[in-house]
Write a structure and sequence with these properties.
It is built from 3 helices and 11 strands, in the order βαβββββββββααβ. By secondary structure, it is an alpha/beta fold. It has an 11-stranded mixed beta sheet, sandwiched between helices.
Length: about 250
Amino acid sequence: MKKQEIIDAKNLHYKILNEKIIEAVKSGADEIILNNINGQRYIAAGLKDDARIIVNGVPGNDLGAFMDGPKIIVNSNAQDVIGNTMNNVKIIVHGSCGDITGYGMRAGQIYIKGNAGYRIGIHLKSYKNLLPVIIIGGSVGDFFGEYMGGGALFVLGLNNNDVKIVGNYIGTGMHAGVIYIRGSVQKYQLGKEVGFAELNENDVALFDKYLKDYCDIFDIDYQKLTAEKFTKLIPVSHRPYGKIYAY
């Protein structure tokens, strides 16, 4: 039988809140509900467990930083640096988020229903069979996928038909991984390190695994979505700045 723990975070300092979360995990809680969250930073940072954490309110910076194992569901918006250097974790945000989501992320998934800020997926990396994936349902700002070293980024532009769904300098410094953007992208929006590519069977498999999961969570018609055009971007070099180094 699953054990649920409810924590009222009203007026709690983030250190005390995280102590309570750790105590709940140690006591065997499978699901932890955090109520009245209001900007507390580092929620569940460094946590290694398979608990499900439900956040009611707006969490502060570095939600889920360095985590390995838990699943976090945010029933609102979130601030900057979600999933900083996280491992095998799933973070679901039913609103929008700020800048630098997924910084240095090494595995797991971050699903954002709404919009995201600048430098989403910076330094994303993958190792062996670990694949970090970030899917943004709305629009993103400049430097999407900056210095990306692995994994997969999606931006869908849902409900953003009247605005540019992705900013400029896409993939600047990118040397591995793949970026998918629903619709068309102009050449001037790209960093010089990336270029266009055709979708293949591997991309279809990736869509069927991760994008379908995203659509199931947010009740989006997957077949209708994937019937539309997606632009695929990949790096043109695995060592774009090699000439500026001695070796």
